[in-house]
Amino acid sequence: RRREVGRQAFITLGVLALVARFRPDDKPLRVAALLHDIGHLPLSNTFEGVSGLNHHDIGIRLLSTDPVHAVLKAHGYSAEAIGAVLGGESASPLSSRRLRAWKLAIHSVQ
Q1: 65 phi/psi in degrees, rounded to 5
Q2: How far is residue 29's CA from residue 107's CA, in Å, rounded to a whole number?
Q3: Measured between alpha carbons, how far is 104 from 10 in angstroms, rounded to an integer?
Q4: Which of 4, 34, 53, 93 has the highest local Cβ count within 10 Å?
Q5: What is the model's pTM?
Q6: DSSP string spanning 42-110?
């Protein structure tokens, strides 16, 4: 579990670094990059196929619950807007296909 947490942190920071490099003025996108895997459960990549869970759906739901919602609001961000980016509802480099490509690139560096 400890190794998995470190790997997830590495991936999240890698996505954030890519956003900061290619979209430096897009602060909501930076927030979305940091929160893109917030719905991960322990070993969720393994169990999602078996259980029908989806960590992306869980993460989007978590955006509207406290403490996440309260922190976003306190910093001037809309949970709905961040959820739209993460859910692929807005044009964004974090939309599903691009995000998978970025994650593959980050995984290849490990």
Answers
A1: -110, 155
A2: 21
A3: 13
A4: 93
A5: 0.73
A6: TTHHHHHHHH---HHHHHHHHTTSTTHHHHHHHTT--HHHHHHHHTT-S--TTSHHHHHHHHHHHHHH-
Whether residue 95 is predicted with pLDDT greater than 70 in this model: the reply is no
pLDDT at 70: 97
Contacts of 56 (CB under 8 A, 6+ apart): 39, 86, 87
User: Quick one: what percent of the chain has pLDDT higher than 70?
Assistant: 75
Span between the terminal Cα atoms of the chain, in Å = 17
CB 79 within 8 A of CB 65: no
Residues in the chain: 110
